[in-house]
Amino acid sequence: MHTVIIGGSFGGLNVAYDLRRLLPHKSHKITLISAEPRFIFIPSLPWVTMGSKTIDDISFELKGPLNSKRIEFIEATVTSIDPEKNQVHTPAETIDYDCLVIATGHRSANEAVPGLGPFDGPGHSLMSPPEAEEAHEAWTTFLENPGPMVIGCAPGASCLGPAYEFLFEAHHALKKRKLCHKAPMTFITPEPFLGHFGVGGFGKIRQYLESELEDRDIRYHTSAAITTITGNSVETADGSVFESRFSLVIPPLAGVTAVAEAPGLGNPKGFIPVDEHYRHTTFSNIYVVGVAVALPPVEDTPVPVNFPKTGHMTEQMARIAANNIAADVLGTQKTTHELSVECIMDMGNEAAHMVADPVRPPRNVSRLSHGKRWLIAKRFFARYYLWKLRLGANKSPKWVW
Ligand SMILES: Cc1cc2nc3c(=O)[nH]c(=O)nc-3n(C[C@H](O)[C@H](O)[C@H](O)COP(=O)(O)OP(=O)(O)OC[C@H]3O[C@@H](n4cnc5c(N)ncnc54)[C@H](O)[C@@H]3O)c2cc1C
Prior knowledge:
- This protein is of the alpha/beta class.
- The chain has helices at 10-22, 45-50, 63-68, 129-144, 161-176, 205-215, 257-260, 311-330, 372-391; strands spanning 2-6, 29-34, 38-40, 59-61, 72-75, 80-82, 87-89, 94-96, 99-102, 107-108, 149-153, 185-188, 219-221, 226-230, 233-236, 241-243, 246-250, 253-254, 286-288, 341-346, 351-357, 365-371.
- Strands 5-2-1-9-19 form a five-stranded parallel β-sheet. Strands 13-12-11-17 form a four-stranded parallel β-sheet, covered by helices on one side. A three-stranded antiparallel β-sheet has the order 6-7-8.
- The structure holds flavin-adenine dinucleotide (FAD).
- Residues 6-12, 33-36, 42-43, 45-46, 77-78, 103-106, 126-127, 159, 161-162, 256, 258, 290-292, 309-312, 314, 343 line the site of flavin-adenine dinucleotide (FAD).
């Protein structure tokens, strides 16, 4: 039997390691295909943008760790998927599978906001390694001659945390240089209140973030729809124009092209519908994990805000999917559980720790705490996670996810 996994990040790598642990290598071949030859710890991209880390600092090569676990690695872009014929195509070959796991993450739908760029327009983003590196160069230049700046999220965004992280980290960097008076900051978000994050908030996050932004003299606008970014402004749907010499805006996300174009695989945005076992709703030998999964928003909001799929949630999906693939093979019971989420948001001088269980309200746990200790924990966790995945030790002690 041959399982093919597309994607070498939180979803794909965790499924690969778990499956290898659950299924004997003599009867079960596993191949992981990834366009990117490295595992990159994506949650550290705001640090790349700020210049405190490089992509090399937050990544490792996939081939060695995978091969050492008897998982074949192919560095290639999957150009098309044929779910009827059980085949995936790369520019060099056609690969047959018995079971397919799709963990291809997202495509940044930057075209949703005219001017967002980041490579063909004045706006910046940090949703992928090249975008974070581009934003870092622009940020370095901006610091030499700062001016008004706008940070925010576009209508329909789902990954809102990095906008807040960049906002707080940028403020911290400006404050250290005594430049805040030259760079008034405005935060613009489609969320109905600060800290909604597409999940309806966590504990007292709204009051906390409002007071943190007010303490820092940062203006904010909620339920706001960014429509255009120009070289010196950001415009919103109500006709407001905000002066901005540095604009960083998180776009809405879409599925990657190979998924979006595969007949019958995804929804119109290119995300893939699954059942509670993370199995495709039509093709029973296809599993999907991570950002590639189609999950509906938690509620209707005046300006659309989509449901986030975090690294922590992706890891849980990977574990559930791997167990269920093994259950298909071994004839054992399938299992699942509701997703929970735990996140640490860097706020420059401290960090906020948020927990929601389950992610979708109503919840048993909805908690917020903050302090310097969480900043230390975030830095530790980034290193620990890279170490853990490089070793293939994908089980964590209970006190870390
Ligand atoms: C800036 C930023 C900050 C974040 N911060 C946090 C945080 O603090 N905490 C948290 O829990 N989550 C955070 N997240 C979310 C987290 O990074 C994602 O949930 C996680 O990366 C999703 O993993 P994934 O495997 O689904 O997809 P991705 O990480 O997007 O990986 C997709 C993989 O698929 C490969 N791929 C894509 N298309 C193809 C193709 N056609 N052929 C072959 N390979 C392909 C890519 O090369 C990559 O290996 C953040 C995300 C961003 C962007």
